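R.M. (postdoc): so does anyone remember the format we settled on? I'll just put the structure tokens first.
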């Protein structure tokens, strides 16, 4: 049986090097330094979701990405307060409510999702952070690139959804 060995010392050093490189690149269109999103889905890629995430947080990572609701909730239940992005779309209204209650950043890939988020967030009188998932040709899920401008225009009409700063063209035109 093969075994994955990860050196904590090397991982810590790699994080330091990557942060230094990102800082040297300067600020983005929104005036912010780029952030590192640590993808910890799939049980932390086999390293243990919670221990691996805590290690990353303790070494400067402030943004984690997971695959599903269960992983997001496990991190919140473990006391992790950093921003968490769910990479896959939510599947129903009940799941969406749980994500919102736990302040999980959503991945949005359709107007139908936007409409449901807007309905629930207005009722709760809260703002929701979201990423826009763009299908660049692999056909998995997401907004087709040629429809991106229409989706972004739809977002502009929403009162409750805040597109995260990672969509540079949106930040550039909307501050």
């Amino acid at each position: 049986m093969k075994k994955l060995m990860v050196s904590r010392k090397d991982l810590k050093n790699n994080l330091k090097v990557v942060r230094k490189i990102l800082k040297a690149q300067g600020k983005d269109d929104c005036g912010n330094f780029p952030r590192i999103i640590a993808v910890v889905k799939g049980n932390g890629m086999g390293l243990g979701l919670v221990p691996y995430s805590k290690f990353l947080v303790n070494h400067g990572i402030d943004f984690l990405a997971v695959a599903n609701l269960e992983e997001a909730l496990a991190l919140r239940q473990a006391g992790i307060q950093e921003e968490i992005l769910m990479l896959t779309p939510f599947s129903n209204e009940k799941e969406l409510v749980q994500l919102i209650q736990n302040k999980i950043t959503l991945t949005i890939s359709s107007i139908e999702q936007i409409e449901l988020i807007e309905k629930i967030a207005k009722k709760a009188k809260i703002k929701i952070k979201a990423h826009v998932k763009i299908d660049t040709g692999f056909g998995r899920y997401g907004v087709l690139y040629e429809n991106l401008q229409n989706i972004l225009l739809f977002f502009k009409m929403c009162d409750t959804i805040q597109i995260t700063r990672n969509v540079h063209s949106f930040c550039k035109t909307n501050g």
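R.M.: ...and that's the designed sequence above, right after the tokens. Also worth knowing: The mean pLDDT is 84. The radius of gyration is 17 Å.
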